[in-house]
Amino acid sequence: MNTPQDFPIDPLQVGSHRFRSRLLVGTGKYRDFAQTRAAVEASGAEVVTVAVRRTNIGQDPSAPSLLDVLPPQRFTLLPNTAGCHTADDAVRTLRLARELLDGHALVKLEVLGDSETLFPNMPETLAAADRLVRDGFEVMVYCSDDPVQARMLEDIGCVAIMPLASLIGSGMGILNPWSLEIIVDRSRVPVIVDAGVGTASDAAIAMELGCDGVLMNSAIAMASDPVRMAGAMAAAVRAGRDAFLAGRMPRRRYAGSPSSPLEGVISGDA
């Protein structure tokens, strides 16, 4: 009997980086750094996002640092621009992160257009992405689930496209799977669902659609048991990826198909 360990390793390639885990996790909203570390460990994630404007990664030497519990030697830190509403703010924030992290170039860009919905401002996102790519950053970018905008970001040179499934922190799951499928079908770089995942089935569906990974924070951190939820999310991402690679059976509307062979059926006349 085959187990998941029997199948070939299916790494996620993002720019110049390769990862075994396709689950990326955030580091905000936890009770404390100890719970953050426990949840990240349970998730099996190698990439952890850090909101540079909200989390100490060396800006304040006198305060506890996230790097003390999630050391860069073990985890790939993904500085993000959460809270930025202009291209200038986002570019400035990521240049600061690069200085604090000794030249680290892999970053997550998000430029918000609305403080209530946290929907992305796509014109400012495109402008910031262009400047950051030209400045040598490997840009993973949060964006709307618009296939045209996604292609524009890819053409700029972003190394991963990160469309929302639903609003950040909403837990509403994947509201528009058709747009995600179009983005996946047309993209030549990884597509990683970002925002809106609420539970394990949402993560599995994203992977079954063909997405290359899932990034989440609130779905784990706001669960009643974050550590256990982190483990559930890891299992869901692996299961969804395996299901996508295996290829689901065709959908048959208005037609049943017996699951057992018909040959050799014992007749009622026997």
How would you describe what is shown here?
- This protein is of the alpha/beta class and 270 residues long.
- Helices cover 34% and strands 15% of the residues.
- The strands form four sheets. A three-stranded parallel sheet has the order 3-10-9. It has a three-stranded parallel sheet with strand order 6-7-8, covered by helices on one side. A two-stranded antiparallel ribbon has the order 1-2.
- Helix 3 (122-134) packs parallel to helix 4 and helix 6 runs parallel beside helix 8 (226-246).
- The model has no long low-confidence stretch (mean pLDDT 89).
Structural class: alpha/beta
The residue-averaged pLDDT reads 89
Name the overall outline: globular
Please report the distance between the alpha carbons of the first and last residues.
37 Å
Hey, roughly how much beta strand do the residues contain? Answer: 5-15%
* Strand and helix order: EEEHEEHEHEHEHEHEHH
Strands of the widest sheet, in order across it, are 3-10-9
Biggest pleated sheet: 3 strands, parallel
Radius of gyration: 21 Å
| Helical residues, percent | 25-40%
Low-confidence residue ranges: none
Number of E-type strands: 10
